[in-house]
C-alpha cells in the first residue's frame, strides 16, 4: 500500500512537506533513509535507530539475495522479521550492485548475467526476479530493475546515443517490473526510476514514459555515479519538480548535508546515502559547523563533544542535553580520537550514532521549518553555519 | 575509601555474600568485572553496561599509560571522566602487561625496563610509578605492582626456588606500593596480591606477609597463566578462604562460568576475565545449556535466540522478555550467524552484550541464591544445565 499526503509546499522553492503511508506505518517527508545493506545499518542496533528517529531504512536486494539467501529470509517472513525492524523498509532492485561488478557481469535485454562475488556461481538477474526477491523481502517500497547509466566508461563520457539506449532499456525493464509486481499480487508499492544520464531531453522522455505507467512513486537514478558536482546539481534542478506533485520523489544515493538541502529545495522527498555511516567509520564527522576529522592530532586532549549543539548519545550521553546547554555526559573528541587510534569498536559505534543523528536531525529541522513556513531562512542559516568551519 | 560488609556466608562452602563500598558507590559481591582495557569495554557503550547490571569495570594501567597518556587523562580528572563511567573502576598495576612483553622487557629489583610497544621509547615501570599512574586514573581499587610468576618458561616448569624469588620480590614491591600509595594520599583502596606460583607453601608465606601489611583487600594472582586446569583449581582451593574473612578477595583473570562458580564456592568475591568479550568477538557464546559456536553452519536458518531463557537485548530485544516466556523481539541465531559471515559490526556488538549479560546475570543468580541460602542447589543446577549442551 502507499498513500502520499502533500501537507505543505514552500513558496520560495520546490520544497514540500508530506506524509507517506506505507505497509509498516507512516513516515514524514522530507526524510533520510539510513542504509542497511546486509540487513543491518552498519554499527547501530535497531533500538538505536528508533531512538535517533529513523523512520524507514534501506536494504540492498542483491546483497541479501547472496547472503543470507532467500530461503532463510522466507523463513522469517521477510527482511523485517530477520533484522527486527518493524518500521518501513525500502529495497533497491539489485541492479546497481550487479552493474558495479564491472567485468564480472554482462548486461543483455533479458537481464544481467554475473558471477556471484560470494562463491563464483553463474547467476542471472532480471526485472522479474528482482520483483520476486523484493516480494520475499517484504519491502514496503520496491524499486524497479533499471540499468544505471554510467557517467563515463574508461575515461569516455557516455554519449547521448548510449544514454538513450540505456534509458530506453530501463523503460522496458520498468514495464516488465510493473507487470511482474502485479502478477505477484505484491501489496506494497513499486517505484519507477528516471534515467537518461546527464541529458535533460532524455530525462524528460524517461519521466514522461514512467508517469504514463502510473507508478505510486518515482525515483531519480543515475546521479552520484562519478559525475562532477555541477552536473549532479543540474540533474537535481531538472527532474524532481517535474515529477507528479501528488506522488513521493526519491533521489537515490545522494549525498552531503548541502546536497540534501538542495534536493529538498528542488522538490525531493526521500534520500538515502552511505555517507553518514561510511564516513563515521573513516573518522569524518558531520557537525553543524562543518566536517571534523577525528584522526587529526589536534583533538588529542579536546574535552568538547563532536558538536556542542548535538543531542545524540555520542555528544550528549544518556540525558541528551547538549554541551551548549550545560550537558556534560557526552563523549569528548579526545576520547573518540583515542578510540580511533586504538582501533576500538566503540569508536565507529559512537561516530555512526552521531553522523546518522546529524542526518536525521537535519531532516527533522527541515520538516519543522517547512511546517513553520521558514524553509528559506533555515536553508540560509544551515549553509552559513556549515561553511563557518568547526 | 573501602568498606566491606560481609552479609551472609554459605554453610556448604566458603561462598559469601557481601557489599563493598568504594569511592564511586556500593557494589554487591560476588561480582564479575567486565574488562575495559583501553578505557572501553570492547563493543559496548557505558549505557549498555549499566543496563546489563555491571557494577564495576576494569581498566588496564599499562595500556592507558601508553594511550591516551597521563596528560590527557589528567585533563579529564581521571579515567571515569574520560570514558564516562561513573560507577567504580578497578585498575591492574600494569605489571602483567609489561611482563607479557617477553623479550621486550627486563625485570630488575627496582622495576621493569621495557620498550614501548606503541613507539619503541625506552620506559621503566616501578611500584612507585604504578601507584602514581593509578592515582592519576582515580581508580577506586588500585592494585600493587607485582611480578606474575610464570607457570613455565620455554617449556621448563618454574622451580620452587624461582617461584620463591619472584614471590619475595612481589612482597618487597607490595611494601613499596603501599608506601607510595600512602605518600600520594590516595583516598581509594590498594589491594595486595598473593603470589607463589603453584607452591602452596609459598602462597601461604605470601599471604601471611601481605596480611601483616593490612591491605584493605587481597587478590590471588599468578593463576590463569597457562597452567593446567587442575593446577588452577588447586590454587583456588588453597588461597582464597585463607584470606581475612572481613576483607574482599579478588581472583585475577578467571575464568569460565564453571570457574566462577568454583571460585565463589572457594570464597572469592570478585572476578575479571576477557573471556566473555573476547569469545563474543570470536563467535563463542555462553548459554545456560553450554557454549554455542555461532559460525557453525547449523545455525544458518535457526530462528531461536542464542539462549531461550535469556533476557539480554540480543536474545530478547528491547522488551527483555525471553523466548521461553513468549518474547519474540530478540535476534535469531540465523541473524547472528549471517552478521558474522558478513563481517558486520552489529555481530560482535550483539554477542558481546549477550556474553557479558550471561556473566553478570550468572553472578546475580549466585548472589540471589546466597541471599536465599540456596547456593549449593544453584551450583548443582547450573553445572548440570551447562553440561547438557545447547
UniProtKB/TrEMBL annotation, chains A, B:
Key word DNA-binding present: no
The keyword Transferase is assigned to this record: yes
Pathway: tRNA modification; tRNA-queuosine biosynthesis
Cofactor comment text: Binds 1 zinc ion per subunit.
Cofactors, names only: Zn(2+)
Binding residues for substrate: 92-96, 146, 195, 222
Signal sequence range: none
Active-site positions on this chain: 92, 272
Assembly behavior: Homodimer. Within each dimer, one monomer is responsible for RNA recognition and catalysis, while the other monomer binds to the replacement base PreQ1.
Family: Belongs to the queuine tRNA-ribosyltransferase family.
Protein name per the record: Queuine tRNA-ribosyltransferase
Source organism of this protein record: Verminephrobacter aporrectodeae subsp. tuberculatae
Lineage summary: Bacteria, Pseudomonadati, Pseudomonadota, Betaproteobacteria, Burkholderiales
Amino acid at each position: 500500500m502507499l498513500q502520499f499526503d502533500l501537507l505543505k509546499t514552500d513558496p520560495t522553492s520546490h520544497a514540500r512537506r508530506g506524509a507517506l503511508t506505507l505497509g509498516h506505518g507512516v513516515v514524514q517527508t522530507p526524510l533520510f533513509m539510513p542504509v542497511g545493506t546486509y540487513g543491518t545499518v552498519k554499527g547501530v542496533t535497531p533500538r538505536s535507530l528508533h531512538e535517533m528517529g529513523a523512520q524507514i531504512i534501506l536494504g540492498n536486494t542483491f546483497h541479501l539475495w547472496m547472503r543470507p539467501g532467500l530461503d532463510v529470509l522466507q523463513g522469517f517472513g521477510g527482511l523485517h522479521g530477520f533484522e527486527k525492524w518493524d518500521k518501513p523498509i525500502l529495497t533497491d532492485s539489485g541492479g546497481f550492485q550487479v552493474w558495479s561488478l564491472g567485468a564480472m557481469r554482462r548486461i543483455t535485454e533479458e537481464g544481467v548475467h554475473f558471477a556471484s562475488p560470494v562463491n563464483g556461481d553463474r547467476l542471472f538477474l532480471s526485472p522479474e526476479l528482482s520483483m520476486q526477491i523484493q516480494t520475499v523481502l517484504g519491502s514496503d517500497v520496491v524499486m524497479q530493475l533499471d540499468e544505471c547509466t554510467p557517467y563515463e566508461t574508461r575515461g569516455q563520457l557516455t554519449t547521448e546515443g548510449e544514454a538513450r539506449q540505456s534509458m530506453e532499456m530501463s523503460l522496458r525493464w520498468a514495464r516488465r517490473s510493473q507487470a511482474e509486481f502485479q502478477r505477484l499480487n505484491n501489496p506494497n508499492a513499486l517505484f519507477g526510476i528516471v534515467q537518461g544520464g546527464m541529458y535533460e531531453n532524455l530525462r524528460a522522455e524517461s519521466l514522461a514514459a514512467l508517469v504514463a505507467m502510473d507508478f505510486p512513486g518515482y525515483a531519480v537514478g543515475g546521479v552520484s555515479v562519478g559525475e562532477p558536482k555541477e552536473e549532479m546539481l543540474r540533474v537535481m534542478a531538472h527532474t524532481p519538480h517535474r515529477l507528479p506533485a501528488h506522488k513521493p520523489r526519491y533521489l537515490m544515493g545522494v549525498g552531503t548535508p548541502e546536497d540534501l538541502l538542495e534536493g529538498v529545495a528542488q522538490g525531493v522527498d526521500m534520500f538515502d546515502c552511505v555517507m553518514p555511516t561510511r564516513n563515521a567509520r573513516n573518522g569524518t564527522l558531520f557537525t553543524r559547523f562543518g566536517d571534523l576529522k577525528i584522526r587529526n592530532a589536534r583533538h588529542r586532549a579536546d574535552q568538547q563533544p563532536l558538536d556542542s549543539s548535538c543531542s545524540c548519545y555520542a555528544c550528549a550521553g544518556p540525558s541528551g542535553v547538549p554541551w551548549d546547554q550545560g550537558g556534560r555526559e557526552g563523549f569528548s573528541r579526545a576520547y573518540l580520537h583515542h578510540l580511533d587510534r586504538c582501533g576500538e569498536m566503540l569508536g565507529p559505534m559512537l561516530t555512526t550514532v552521531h553522523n546518522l543523528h546529524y542526518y536525521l536531525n537535519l531532516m527533522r529541522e527541515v520538516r519543522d521549518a517547512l511546517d513553520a513556513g521558514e524553509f528559506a531562512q533555515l536553508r540560509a542559516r544551515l549553509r552559513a553555519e556549515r561553511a563557518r568551519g568547526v
